[in-house]
Amino acid sequence: MAVGLLGAALYGMYFLREPAFALLAYAATRPVIDEFVSVPIGPISVGQAWGAGLLLILAAFLIRIALLSRTDARAPVILILLTVSYTVFALRGDTALALDYALKLAAWLLLIVAVEWIARSRTGQEACFRAGYAVALGSAIAIAIAIARDQYGATYYATFGQGLEQGPHGFAFLALFSISFPLAAVLQRRWYALSLVLVGVLAIEITLSYVRTALVALALIVAAYFFIAVRRRSPSAFALAGAAVGAAYFVQDRLASRLADLQLLSSGDPSKAGSGRVAIWTSVWDGTMESVHNILFGAGAGASNELVNQAIGHFIYAHNDFLEFFATGGLPLVALYVAFIVWAAASARRLHRDPRQTSRARAFGAIALGAVAAFVTISFLNSIVFYAACIEFAVLLGLVRGMAGTPGRTFFDPAEIK
């Protein structure tokens, strides 16, 4: 307890001196936390304590820049509307679940705002990129430890998660969004050897998670990078493709078993396809559509769990963020979520297509577009918005938006000689 208080005091002193760097440093510790995420600390877990700390730091940081900054520090309206609307709609259901989900959602949406503000300067962009890169390094190490402890993909799917502290999904999704940073570093020839190895390791680790949605999302990011790298005549494109194909080849039998039930989609009874996802989605859709009130306003947090339980006897969530929001807040909440996705894609596209930006900055925008496509894919096929992996997605999106405001003067571009 004393050590924890001392650490908090030292961090507080650092935050008062360098609030932006302190916030990024805290966010970069997430891979370490994932190793102990379920360990109890009194009435809460390590993961919950870390999340609460992130929210407190974000609140302090955003209040500080609102009071002291002379520049515009307003949050994008869509982020405010999505956070507030979800909370209002969700609280009509399971209160504990609503608060848990609302805080998780608010944490990474607010982080986008904070990172964008930090990334308005060249120094800030460099710090944000290094934080994202640190998460990539930490993720590679954390997953390697999980594999060594036999606590990763193969064991999870062989035992249906029995005896494991957590499934491979959180690790795989964090690695997936993290890989954008070393990919960008390879393109820019920053820490080239380390970045090339790190990309290969992360690609292999994501493959070994056997999380199907992560594999599909990885393919999208790799495709976006391959397109950019080939146009820039970078041999790294073939190195990355080789690492992914090689990993898939060596575990092809297990991958085939994970994908086997997708054949049920073309059968007369597709309900069990995708580990029963079709049955889950149908339960949530049909149950919500039975009531005009639920179509318009939803039934609050936990509604999808109840609907699935009534239909197939399993108390589980929708495994689809669009359906989860539909069951929770009806059409208005779904519309806000779709608007957020459009806003995120437009943010990346703005950097990628801006003729005032250099080819280096535009390439990073293209990688970010691939990450947004990966986010949407996971959101539809599994769910992502309540995973801690969104912390890294927030850093990437905030950095992209910050860079969009400094055309020709991003941290990827040569520094001006004064």
Radius of gyration: 21 Å
SS-based class:
mainly alpha
Assembly type of the shown chains?
A: single chain
Q: What proportion of the residues is helical, as a percent range? A: over 70%
* Sheet with most strands: strand arrangement: 1-2
Order of helical and strand elements: HHHEEHHHHHHHHHHHHHHHHH
Please describe the structure with a list of short key phrases separated by commas or semicolons.
single chain, 418 residues, mainly alpha, two-stranded antiparallel sheet, 2 strands, 73% helix, globular
SSE topology sketch:
Layout: H1 2-17, H2 19-27, H3 30-34, E1 40-41, E2 44-45, H4 46-68, H5 77-90, H6 95-118, H7 122-148, H8 153-159, H9 169-178, H10 180-187, H11 192-208, H12 212-231, H13 236-250, H14 252-259, H15 273-289, H16 292-297, H17 303-312, H18 321-353, H19 359-381, H20 390-404
Antiparallel strand pairs: 1-2
Helix pairs in contact: 1-2, 2-4, 2-7, 4-6, 5-6, 5-18, 6-20, 7-9, 7-11, 7-20, 9-11, 9-20, 10-11, 10-19, 11-13, 12-13, 12-19, 15-17, 15-18, 18-19, 18-20, 19-20
Explain what this protein looks like in three dimensions:
The protein has one domain (about 75-405). It contains 20 helices and two strands. The chain has about 425 residues and is mainly alpha-helical. α7 (about 120-150) runs antiparallel to α9. Strands 1-2 form a two-stranded antiparallel ribbon. It has helices at about 1-15, 20-25, 30-35, 45-70, 75-90, 95-120, 120-150, 155-160, 170-180, 180-185, 190-210, 210-230, 235-250, 250-260, 275-290, 290-295, 305-310, 320-355, 360-380, 390-405; strands spanning about 40, 45.
